[in-house]
């Protein structure tokens, strides 16, 4: 089952059934399909999208897959049926596997807007709104290099799933930036299937195999939560620097406690808001910006309070 909420209603369950007198005008229906349900990054994105849709007099319906999984997300895309909403805002869970289902919705008349992740094929979407993920990875490496100083050592990257455009770009940005920090040696990139448990065991294994491990870059909130668990279990909190991506409540708590030494926060609400704006522009025949980049913010314990507006939400 998927989590489904309609703009303004705040409820979970089927919405938008026929015969409703409060039905929005034809052409004013938007659908949002995030990467996964009940996760602070996508909840914050949904909040931004809902607020913007409401302001513009559009209905926005959100359905999210239970897991960050292309097969589950495909089911939701296919369920939009032969008469889809005017525009689909989607975070494709796989840059390749989601091409055919999204292409089909487009063929059926919906405008496609990518939010957060993107397809490899850039001809499908009208617009893409995302963080500069390569830059985010680079920023993480620079933050880590500063923390480690001149001490030589190895650094591990925890990616999610091969085919996730965002985290794959973060891992590459990080690894490429290591060339500018010769004291830091790559201990490789590990995939975790976006499962905190897998991230935790990869950290346990790396601590055993790589005695000079000085840092870990966790490319999203699930890998970060798992990495923090792995370090805690080994009694290595603080001894190995952990740089996380995102700013979920548990990551922010972890930064306060010293489990993380840095976080690279995205602005998911802005991604959702701009996604809706571009969808409406496309539907109303106004100029559309093909690529929009949301801001990133590097946060350390010292700058936590000044950055509280970037902390992710659990509900709107
Ligand atoms: O980091 C975000 C998102 O940008 C990424 O595409 C998938 O993971 C998150 O949702 C965080 O869990």
Describe this structure in words.
This is Ribose transport system substrate-binding protein. One of its GO terms (molecular function) is carbohydrate binding. One of its GO terms (cellular component) is cell envelope. InterPro entries: Peripla_BP_I, SBP_2_dom. The protein is of the alpha/beta class and 316 residues long. Helix content is 37%, strand content 21%. The chain has helices at 40-56, 70-78, 99-107, 133-148, 165-177, 196-209, 221-233, 249-257, 268-283; strands at 3-6, 29-33, 59-64, 87-90, 111-115, 127-131, 153-159, 184-191, 213-218, 241-245, 262-265, 291-294, 297-299. The structure holds alpha-D-tagatopyranose. Alpha-D-tagatopyranose (T6T) is lined by residues 35, 39, 41-42, 116-117, 164, 166-167, 220-222, 245-246, 266. The site of alpha-D-tagatopyranose (T6T) has 15 residues, from helix 1, helix 5 and helix 7.
Number of helices: 9
Helix content: 25-40%
Strands of the largest sheet, in order across it? 1-3-2-4-5-6-12
Q: On the 0-100 scale, what is the average pLDDT?
A: 93
Helix and strand content put the structural class at alpha/beta
| Low-pLDDT windows of residues | 1-22
Spatial separation of the terminal alpha carbons = 22 Å
Major sheet details: 7 strands, mixed
Q: How many β strands by DSSP?
A: 13
Q: Name the ligand types.
A: alpha-D-tagatopyranose
Mass-distribution shape: elongated
Quaternary assembly? single chain
The percentage of residues in β strands lies in 15-25%
| Rounded radius of gyration (Å) | 20 Å
Q: What is the N-to-C order of secondary-structure elements (H for helix, E for strand)?
A: EEHEHEHEEHEHEHEHEHEHEE
GO cellular component, one term: cell envelope
Domain Periplasmic binding protein: 31-286
Family: Belongs to the bacterial solute-binding protein 2 family.
Pfam families: Peripla_BP_4
């Amino acid at each position: 089952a998927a989590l489904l909420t309609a703009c303004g209603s705040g409820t979970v369950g089927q919405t938008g059934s026929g015969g409703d007198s409060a039905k929005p005008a034809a052409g004013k229906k938007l659908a949002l399909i995030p990467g996964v349900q009940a996760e602070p990054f996508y909840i914050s994105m949904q909040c931004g999208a809902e607020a913007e849709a409401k302001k513009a007099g559009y209905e926005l319906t959100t359905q999210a897959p239970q897991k960050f999984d292309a097969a589950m997300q495909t089911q939701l895309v296919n369920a939009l049926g032969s008469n889809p909403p005017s525009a689909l805002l989607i975070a494709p869970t796989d840059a390749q596997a989601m091409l055919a289902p999204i292409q089909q919705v487009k063929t059926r008349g919906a405008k496609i807007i990518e939010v957060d992740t993107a397809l490899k094929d850039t001809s499908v979407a009208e617009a893409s709104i995302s963080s500069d993920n390569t830059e985010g990875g680079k920023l993480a490496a620079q933050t880590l290099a500063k923390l480690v100083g001149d001490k030589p050592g190895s650094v591990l990257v925890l990616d999610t799933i091969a085919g996730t455009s965002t985290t794959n770009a973060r891992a590459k940005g990080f690894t490429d930036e290591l060339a500018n920090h010769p004291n830091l040696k790559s201990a490789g990139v590990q995939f975790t299937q976006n499962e905190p448990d897998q991230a935790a065991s990869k950290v346990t294994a790396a601590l055993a195999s790589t005695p000079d491990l000085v840092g870990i870059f966790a490319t999203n909130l699930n890998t970060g939560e798992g990495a923090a668990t792995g370090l805690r279990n080994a009694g290595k909190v603080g001894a190995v620097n952990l740089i996380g991506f995102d700013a979920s409540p548990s990551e922010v708590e972890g930064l306060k406690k010293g489990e993380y030494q840095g976080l690279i926060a995205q602005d998911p609400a802005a991604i959702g808001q701009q996604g809706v704006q571009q969808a409406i522009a496309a539907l109303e025949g106004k100029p559309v910006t093909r690529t929009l980049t949301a801001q990133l913010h590097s946060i350390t314990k010292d700058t936590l309070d000044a950055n509280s507006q970037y902390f992710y939400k659990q509900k709107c």
